[in-house]
Structure of Uracil phosphoribosyltransferase:
Amino acid sequence: MHLHVVDHPLAAMALTVLRDERTPRDRFRPALHDLATMLVYEATRALPVMPVTVTTPLATTAGTRLAAEPVVAPVLRAGLGMLPAALALLPTAHTAFIGLARDETTHQPTAYLESVPDDLAGHPVFLLDPMLATGGSALHCLRLLLDRGARGITVVAVVAAPEGLVALESGLPADAAAELTVVAAAVDERLNDTAYIVPGLGDAGDRIFGLM
Ligand code: URA
């Protein structure tokens, strides 16, 4: 597994806004959008490209376009908060939706939506989930994406827990684990006894969408 922790002052500032318990939803969402933009920018650094020619008002010169259409897969709910930033940077991307509910007793994910293309072979895939906590949700999604032919998947997270990173490394077939990339703004200390990341930022879905 390749772990890339984005080390940038603007990312650190946005993460601080997200962590702050006083940040209201109307400031949380734009900060998440800004941070997701930076994370996706880093996550797409090695995207395969192909050369094209482009004609400027003055001359013809070399240009670039993506070699394959990417797929972005937000994990519902919280991954939706990162989707607009990902699609702004990757306007030709396909979107695959994976809906997971977390059982608050077992902390295991249950899928209620899997809207994923049948054949992902040859497409760079980016799994969007702000919180990589136990790794249970990410593992469920990664297995689904691997079953559909995805290779070299990138998980884009805001905060990762060490336990989640270990779970991904040990829970995937060795070749898939070796090809996996995780891009995050921070690796935090630990999970607490209810599987929340500490210090983390709380429940990302609730902070994005509210909880009445
Ligand atoms: N999901 C969240 O939203 N926050 C955590 O800390 C862990 C899982």
